[in-house]
Amino acid sequence: MTENEIFLPMPLEHSRNIFGQFDMFAKKLERGFHVSIVNRDEGIKIIGKEQDIKKAEKVLRELWELSRRGNQIQEQNVDYAIAMSMEEKEDTLLSIDGDLICHTISGKPIKPKTLGQKQYADAIRNNMIVFGMGPAGTGKTYLAMAMAITAFKNNEVERIILTRPAIEAGEKLGFLPGDLQSKVDPYLRPLYDALYQIMGAESFVKNMEKGLIEVAPLAYMRGRTLDNAFIILDEAQNTTPAQMKMFLTRIGFGSKVVITGDASQKDLAAGVQSGLDVAVKVLSKIDDISFCQLTSKDVVRHPLVQKIVKAYETYENREKAREKYHSDKRTGIRFSSDKEKLK
User: Do residues 116 and 295 lie in contact, with contact meaning Cβ atoms separated by under 8 Å?
Assistant: First the structure.
């Protein structure tokens, strides 16, 4: 089949943004669509088979529009645009980029970067309780924090309450010096980091002193009724069923709740059931409760993190299949033995 070529007029500053450092992004597009892409001063030339050219052109036009909107094109943008094109998704990067949640203290816009994140943000807007589940790096906590701060600044809620179970991540830390706050702060550090970045340290400290922002371990929630608050429970996979029930029954009028967790990273003792797993089974049919399952495709950290998450998913699925096979085999042998005894 003969090769075709088209020319896409594009200002130099945008083509440089799209091509990336050392033309890294352009090479990804070439490999992804099996085309050749050449940058000219006045635009971009795409060479290849007609169908491949059309797909590459569509993605390039999307990236161009992102660049025109003032975005710095990232590797994640290019990878996700290619993946969406291959899956022939109707949604585009532009529809996702149009959802501005808020700005960080430095002025950087916070927006969903994947379709899964967009659906997660929409679920938080439209439901009283949202479960955001998925692997590390999918923005579960960060987006929830951005939504909470936006609601607080818009006077939709009177305060923000952030909590997580105080449990060691697979290791015993032993005695920790200091008062009670000093002891629990290390467990809550990821929540502080997000607050500092989005709200700024000065504003955070001022609101915390007024009691308008509260960061506390989950145990502190017992016996309270939380009205007119935006409440985030982070690392929910490390709650017990009793803790999860206790937390869910604290919710008062005018409140919104986001519960985040990664079922593949439990730090509970062996044999202890996760409160997050139980809640998904118990609450799945209740109105105004939404369950958002983010995947490795929604990872927005370094591209290598996405590959690591995907590799672990593949490994864990293979192990589950192997365990099920051996379990079925043992069950089959037992049934056969029982039949022999009955004879």
Answer: yes
Q: What is the pTM of this model?
A: 0.79
* Distance from C-alpha of 228 to C-alpha of 72, rounded to nearest angstrom: 37
Q: Assess contact for 290 and 129: CB atoms under 8 A.
A: yes
Per-residue pLDDT of the chain (343 residues; tens, 9 = 90+): 567 889 999 998 899 999 988 899 999 999 999 999 998 878 899 999 999 999 999 999 999 999 998 888 988 889 888 888 887 776 678 888 888 899 888 888 899 988 999 999 999 999 999 999 998 889 899 999 999 999 999 999 999 999 888 764 444 445 556 655 666 666 677 778 888 888 888 998 899 899 899 888 888 888 888 899 999 999 999 999 999 999 999 899 999 999 999 988 888 888 889 999 999 999 988 988 999 999 888 887 766 777 787 788 788 888 888 887 777 777 665 544 454 544 4
Burial label, 155 (beta-carbon count in 10 A; 0-12, 13-18, 19+): exposed
**Cα angle 297-34-70, degrees, rounded to a multiple of 5:** 55
SS3 6: strand
Mapping DSSP onto H, E and C, the string for 151-218 reads HHHCCCCCEEEEEECCCCCCCCCCCCCCCHHHHHHHHHHHHHHHHHHHHCHHHHHHHHHCCCEEEEEH
The alpha carbon torsion through 265, 271, 275, 281 (nearest 10 deg) reads: 100
Residue 14's SS3 state is helix
CA distance 251 to 226: 5
Close Cβ partners of 18 (under 8 Å, ≥ 6 residues apart): 10, 25, 26, 44, 60, 63, 64, 67, 73
Residue 33, number of CB atoms within 10 A of its CB: 25
User: In which residue are the tokens 């009691």 written?
Assistant: 211
CA–CA distance, 62 with 18 (Å, rounded to integer): 10
Helical axes 24-33 vs 12-19, angle rounded to 10°: 70
Residue 110, classified by CB atoms within 10 Å of its CB into exposed (0-12), middle (13-18) or buried (19+), is buried
